[in-house]
Write a structure and sequence with these properties.
With 287 residues, the chain is mainly α. 65% of the residues lie in helices and 3% in strands.
Length: 287
Amino acid sequence: MDSTSPLPTEQRPRTGLQSFFKDARHFQIFYLGGFLIFGLLALDWQVNLAGYLVLLGTGLGVQAIGIKLTGKSWNSLKSALITCLGLCLLLKANSLWTLSFTAAVAIGSKFLIRSKGKHIFNPANFGIILAILLTGDAWVSPGQWGNHIILLFMMGAAGLIVLLKVGRLDTSLSFLLSFGALLFCEQILYKGWPLDHFFHTLTSGTLLLFTFFMITDPVTTPNAPKARIIWGIAVGTLTYILTLWFYVFDAPIWALIIISPLTVWLDRHFPYQRFQWLTSSPKLQHT
């Protein structure tokens, strides 16, 4: 080949911009960071700068320690940042120590609770649940988001972009459709409630954030598409049971922590290549 001939497409070096768009974590960081700013500016959330700094500092610090001890890539700091931003959006606590504990537990669980090289629990989910159970000072506030149509549109559109990048749209749809179908049968067909009540439940900001962020974590969801659909339906069904039968207002995060160990069984019975960040296709390479 002549030295002046252009390189084939697959051999051409990627530009910085191409590499940036290839990593879906960048989209998740902008997605979550954008909604944190939206909540502070448009929804009049109380600014808790110290709390945000504690969550970010503790989470990134524990991740850095884990990287030094295990030899993982420093790129994994992006994943820790995603977890910390999720905690900023979902977690409420009176004490900075509680926030620090939650972030440390969340990130630490990635390194300590693993099966065949894959961590089992969504880190933010695990941290929030443990903080609620052990501290008595932590909670999730679904009402802070409101039920605005603009918010629904923005979260849906931005969330869809993230899902298409990480290849987990099937997980979100199976969860939301199963939960929505059961809710519709209960509220509309059985009880005869107005549609407004049904849509009010489905447009909760916390539910949408859970659908587009927490349940779609590509590292802790099952590897195979069929397994993810089964998994999403299981989470959606349990969310319905906890919400309608036990009146748990933050049911999705409890359903997820209960169903998460099922991933180990599903990965064993539905063999499939594991997700890895920084691949052109989310189903080609192992972590």
